[in-house]
Amino acid sequence: LKLQFLYLIGSVPTIMTLRGLLYVCAAAGAAARPRAAANVLMIAVDDLRPDIAGLYGQDYVSTPNLKRLQARGTTFGRAYCQVALCSPSRTSLLTGRRPDTTRVYDIGPFFRDTMPNGTGAVVATLPQYLKAQGVFATGSGKVFHAGFSSGGPTSTEGGGDGGYPFNASGSWSEPYDFCDQFYNGTVQSPRAQGWPDGPGCAQDAACVECLTKAGSMSADPAFNPAIAVADCPDRCYPDGLVAEMTVAKLRQLTSGDQRWFLTAGFKRPHLGWFVPQSAWDTYTTSRIAPAAHPRPPVNTSLASFGNNGELCGMQGVTCAEVDGYHLLASPTGEELRHGYYAAVTHMDAQLGKVLDALDELDVWSDTAVVLWGDHGWQLGEHGLWAKTTNFETAARVPLIVALPDHPAATKGTRVDSLTELLDVFPTIVDAMGFARPDGIQGDSLIPVLSGGAGKKKAAFSQIHRSSLMGISMRVDGFRVTETTAFDFATARPVYNESNTDYEVYAHHGDTEDDFDAFENANLRITDPEVAARMRAALWAQWGQWGQGN
Q: Alpha-carbon distance 178 to 143, whole Å?
């Protein structure tokens, strides 16, 4: 029996009454399935690893609002990005396609241009597909990577696949508010370019004065501190502005009848860690533990190791070559962790304002909320800082999904089946009751949310290194990574039997609660028989599930 409380105006579905009671499906002997969500709020967080209190087990980090969201939905404990870098990861998620299909591996290329045989021109992004179903798609903050990476007019601003300059046939139903931030503390927004079609996003004069006096903003484009603390209001920071815009948009959308897809893209904890004094004061540097294994894993490949370039290029940070590796020299890891955790806590406080609005507007009964981080982040583990590797700390991400009338079997629980960010697109489409579009390469998580078992046997990530590609597979008990030659014309790695740039790490007994306990010794040297088997599995599985599948 299927009951629909919809009527159609042309081809546009509009909610008539009983918001959220869009579908009630039941069949004798069939597994119960959540009813469809009328609306979706999708929250993207930049550079957030699962260093989160609650079901992620990191209670030294103050994230009460992430805990609130966990209590309403399901936390995926082993979710992985497809590339540990902003633009290619977000492109993969928003198109539902693997990087070897989008051909986007770095910041800069735009999938509309890179996908072969003209497919980029016709592929529908997640918001674009929902818009075609009659859903109003809008948002603010960093969801697409701004600039050339998403069709923007400059390398750093606009874009968002038709968000600015606005293109009615692009991904959004109205001009998009980016509200990102440059390294010098100023907010990055098309309003600075005279954007005429929307309110934009900018710090007001009082904020500029406050941040400048505190040394957290400078007109000098070379100003790029790793940490900048100021006793200024939340709205002086991009995430405070995104929270304000999201709440305002929620009030507007919930007053109408059209179904909606709303995004909120939080910037922190991305570098630099510009945070208000209150977030900084949540922690004490002397009480923060450093990484237990601050040197590269034994017998690791230099090709797989990141050069820490993003952090080493920040003011106040020095790095030095040690045995061929570019490692942090100063400040201490504890100081830098303090900055990262303060940025996480600041972001969490802005998330709380959005959750408060959902409570006040009473929309949980018809609105699904999906929160994800675009990739992990290394806080000194293996001597690494930032992202751009295939290590677990860079590839593993937070993912939380809360449905209307969330199934009791998984509500407030953590599920540790293997999951990829690639699964977000089909999950949201499925949650809203729409058909899965052709070409999607992930799996809907609705069956898992309903209490079923996850179907993935492996999760795949990759990192571009000049003419090489690091391909990585995470399975139960192991991670295997190989850096190899890559045919960019066909988007396929080139197998070389004699290649020794591969690593195999055991994850037996890994509950994912300790970011430091694993991937510290390469089995290629210590257990070559197991390593050879895992390497063979990587190549067999990459062809089946990794590239283009």
A: 8
Burial class of residue 335 in the structure, from the number of CB atoms within 10 Å of its CB (0-12 exposed, 13-18 middle, 19+ buried)? middle
Q: How far is CA 36 from CA 301, 468, 496, in A?
A: 47, 43, 48
In this predicted structure, what is the pLDDT of residue 203? 87
Could you tell me the pLDDT band of residue 541, with boundaries at 50, 70 and 90? very high
Query: In angstroms, rounded to a whole number, what is the distance separating the alpha carbons of residues 388 and 26?
Result: 45
Question: In the Cβ-directed half-sphere of 123, how many Cα atoms lie within 13 Å?
Answer: 26
pLDDT tens figures, 367-393: 999 999 999 999 999 999 999 999 999
How far apart, in whole angstroms, are the C-alpha atoms of residue 539 and residue 473? 9
Number of other residues whose CB lies within 10 A of the CB of residue 31 = 9
3-state SS class at 359: helix
d(CA 399, CA 397): 6
The Cβ of residue 493 has, within 10 Å, a number of other Cβ atoms equal to 24
The string of pLDDT tens digits covering residues 444-487 is 999 999 999 999 999 999 999 999 999 999 999 999 999 999 99
Give the CA angle between residues 294, 296, 301 to the nearest 5°.
165
Q: Is 272 helix (H, G, I), strand (E, B) or coil?
A: coil
